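Researcher: We plan to redesign the surface later, but first we want a full-length starting point. Tokens attached.
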């Protein structure tokens, strides 16, 4: 039987656990160690002595440390600022990392090997004095050893390089530019010498690399200067030739043609104004002559002294004529003479006015001729300006090419001079802030007291473990072997089980299922029809407690996934595995559990077909088979026995087949045929049967035999052990398909309604 170790309503006494005869408690362990205290102490002392001996035999190492300041902001000796502005921290960290890698680069280390003659040092793989002594002895007997070849020298250097790499450790601070260079050696003076040699070699190599880069840049720039100078000369020559060919002559601001065109335009405007003035003066004179007005009442006549004198004489003659007319008769010779004098003066004035009119005509003709000549000259200049404008397009292109060539040449020339000066300047900000000193204490091995302590502890522990193991093995060898029945009935502590009250033959047939607990914290309760949507059947709004949205890694969902995985293993690769949920007591709790099982599978992406296999209660069918909601789905032919019980598509990705109104045998046969049709047509990943109800009928047993897995639903409102015994007894041989047990800890519907009324 299965023991869930979940006391719900009543507590059952735990069966007394038998103490293993081969084991012993802590008191026995202490007694054993106390009896062997002398041997354990001797082993601890032996371990301490052995550890000290090993420590004395180890070759000591001495570590020397040199501190190097590596500033990624190099000095800007040719710019205005001495150092550049702040850079990105990530970029600066990359620079520090790169410089740290350069310190241990092969190029730097090979220079250190040559300067310190490490290829002849036995510590770094060299032959040392032994080879020199052997060479001298061979020379005494007349043998001249063969000179080492270049390949041999290279192999020795590579061996020394590999050994030196193992002796160096580079440490960088997280938020600083300080780099610690640690080198260990068996000789403390050699360790300090190698650390200082490495830092100096790195700084020298860094300066040489900068000078080499500046020299290479200067060489590249100088090689381009000649070509750029020739290109600039050709561009300027082409520009000057084009200007001369197209008569582009002028000052710095404008061309002469443009200046002439502007001047001609101004003179033409002045000539047009003079022509209009002469025309107006002539029109005024002609108008005065045509009208009865005084012909001398024009500005020119009024300003003329001749006209003024004639008008004065004319006025005197008229006065005299008026006087004589009053004194003399009309035929008097004096009167006739005065009248003739008046007529002569009037004719003389008219002739003078005619001369003014003729002068105005001449001025108008001259102004028109001058205007026409200026207009012709302006047209010529306009045509020339248009031609020059068309030629100016090419001129501007040549000027741009010349300017571009000039700018590039000047920038190259300036940069070439700067890089030439940088060859002799050291722009690196790296410097040694702490030279390596001869270490006074060795870095390895540690103090002999620590070796002795470690050896003492390990020796004592080894002896204690040996005695405990020997005692345990001895007791285990003499202990009686448990019987086969005891081994069979021994509880498995790896998973909770039911109390062992059933006879042993039943235990040997039942495979311990997985366990899941359906609690109030896992579900949410809705008001059913009040919150029901009109767009289709929503299984989370039928009035039953359903899984809460979200929380994909809850303990309940993980247990349900494990049950589905166990079902898939039992199905043996079937395309559409079938699982049935059976339970004792109220069928509503089983139906609620089956619905949540289907929702959990649909949440994981499975296409679920849920069938109401309880032809007595019809709990699931009564919830989903409502008016205006039982529309056939995509597979409209899928039904159970009648057209009324057709497949119902829900908005949750689950298809529901309600129970048919027929007897148990026909309903079971119809369900098996429906599963066969769905398996042949495809479109589903899992079939979940709600039922059949307990106690099982012959049709229900036959239906369960066609399933791949079973899940038992145990309501915690009843005794779970009694419920489990009832289910196992009802299943009979089908209990081998039991893959899981769901403990239904949800509050019954009646209590939930009473609590709702209480807090309403």
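Model: Full-length starting sequence:
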């Amino acid at each position: 039987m299965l023991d869930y170790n979940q006391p719900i309503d009543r507590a059952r006494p735990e069966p007394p656990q038998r103490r293993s005869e081969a084991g012993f408690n802590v008191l026995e362990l202490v007694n054993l160690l106390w009896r062997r205290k002398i041997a354990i102490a001797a082993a601890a002392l032996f371990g301490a002595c052995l550890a000290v001996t090993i420590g004395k035999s180890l070759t000591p190492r001495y570590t020397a440390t040199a501190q190097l300041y590596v500033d990624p902001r190099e000095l800007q000796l040719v710019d205005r600022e001495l150092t550049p502005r702040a850079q990105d921290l990530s970029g600066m960290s990359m620079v520090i990392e790169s410089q740290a890698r350069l310190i241990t680069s092969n190029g730097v280390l090979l220079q250190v090997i040559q300067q310190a003659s490490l290829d002849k040092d036995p510590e770094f793989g060299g032959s040392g004095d032994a080879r020199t002594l052997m060479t001298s002895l061979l020379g005494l007997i007349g043998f001249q050893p063969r000179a080492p070849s270049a390949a041999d020298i290279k192999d020795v250097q590579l061996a020394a390089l590999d050994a030196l790499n193992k002796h160096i450790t580079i440490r960088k601070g997280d938020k600083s530019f300080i780099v610690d260079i640690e080198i260990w050696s068996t000789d403390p003076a050699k360790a300090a010498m190698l650390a200082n040699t490495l830092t100096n070699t790195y700084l020298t190599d860094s300066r040489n690399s900068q000078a080499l880069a500046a020299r290479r840049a200067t060489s590249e720039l100088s090689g381009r200067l000649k070509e750029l100078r020739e290109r600039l000369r050709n561009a300027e020559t082409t520009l000057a030739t084009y200007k001369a060919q197209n008569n582009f002559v002028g000052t710095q601001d404008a061309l002469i043609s443009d200046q002439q065109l502007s001047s001609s335009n101004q003179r033409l405007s002045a000539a047009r104004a003079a022509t209009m003035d002469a025309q107006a003066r002539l029109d005024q004179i002609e108008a005065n002559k045509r009208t009865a007005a005084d012909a001398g009442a024009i500005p020119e006549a009024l300003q003329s002294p001749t006209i003024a004198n004639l008008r004065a004489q004319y006025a005197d003659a008229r006065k005299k004529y008026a006087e004589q007319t009053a004194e003399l008769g009309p035929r008097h010779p004096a009167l006739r003479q005065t009248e003739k004098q008046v007529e002569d003066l009037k004719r003389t004035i008219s002739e003078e006015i005619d001369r003014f009119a003729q002068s105005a005509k001449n001025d108008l003709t001259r102004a028109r001729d001058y205007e026409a000549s200026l207009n012709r000259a302006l047209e010529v200049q306009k045509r020339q300006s248009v031609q020059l404008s068309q030629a100016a397009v090419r001129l501007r292109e040549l000027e741009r090419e010349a300017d571009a060539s000039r700018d590039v040449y000047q920038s190259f020339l300036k940069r070439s001079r700067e890089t030439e000066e940088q060859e002799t300047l050291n722009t690196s900000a790296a410097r040694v802030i702490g030279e390596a000193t001869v270490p006074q204490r060795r870095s390895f091995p540690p103090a002999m007291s620590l070796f002795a302590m470690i050896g003492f502890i390990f020796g004592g522990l080894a002896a204690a473990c040996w005695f405990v193991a020997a005692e345990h093995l001895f007791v285990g060898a003499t202990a009686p072997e448990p019987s086969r029945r005891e081994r069979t009935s021994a509880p498995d502590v790896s998973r909770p089980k039911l109390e062992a009250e059933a006879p042993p033959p039943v235990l040997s047939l039942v495979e311990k299922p997985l366990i899941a607990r359906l609690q109030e914290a896992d579900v949410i309760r809705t008001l059913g029809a009040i919150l029901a949507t009109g767009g289709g059947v929503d299984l989370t709004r039928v009035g039953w407690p359903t899984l809460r949205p979200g929380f994909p890694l809850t303990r309940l969902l993980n247990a349900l996934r494990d049950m589905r995985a166990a079902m898939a293993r039992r199905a043996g690769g079937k395309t559409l595995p079938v699982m049935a949920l059976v339970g004792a007591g109220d069928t509503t709790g089983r139906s609620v559990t089956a619905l949540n099982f289907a929702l959990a599978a649909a949440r994981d992406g499975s296409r679920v077909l849920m069938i109401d296999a309880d032809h007595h209660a019809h709990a699931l069918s009564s919830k989903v088979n409502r008016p205006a909601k039982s529309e056939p789905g995509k597979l409209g032919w899928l039904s159970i026995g009648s057209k009324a019980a057709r497949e119902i598509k829900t908005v949750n990705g689950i298809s529901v087949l309600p129970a048919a109104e027929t007897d148990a045998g026909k309903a079971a046969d119809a369900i098996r045929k429906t599963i066969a049709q769905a398996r042949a047509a495809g479109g589903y990943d899992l079939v979940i049967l709600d039922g059949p109800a307990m106690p099982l009928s012959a049709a229900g047993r036959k239906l369960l035999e066609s399933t791949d897995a079973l899940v038992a639903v145990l309501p915690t409102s009843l005794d779970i052990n009694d419920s489990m015994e009832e289910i196992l007894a009802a299943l009979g041989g089908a209990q081998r398909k039991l893959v899981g047990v769901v403990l239904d800890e949800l509050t019954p519907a009646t209590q939930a309604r009473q609590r709702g009324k209480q807090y309403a």
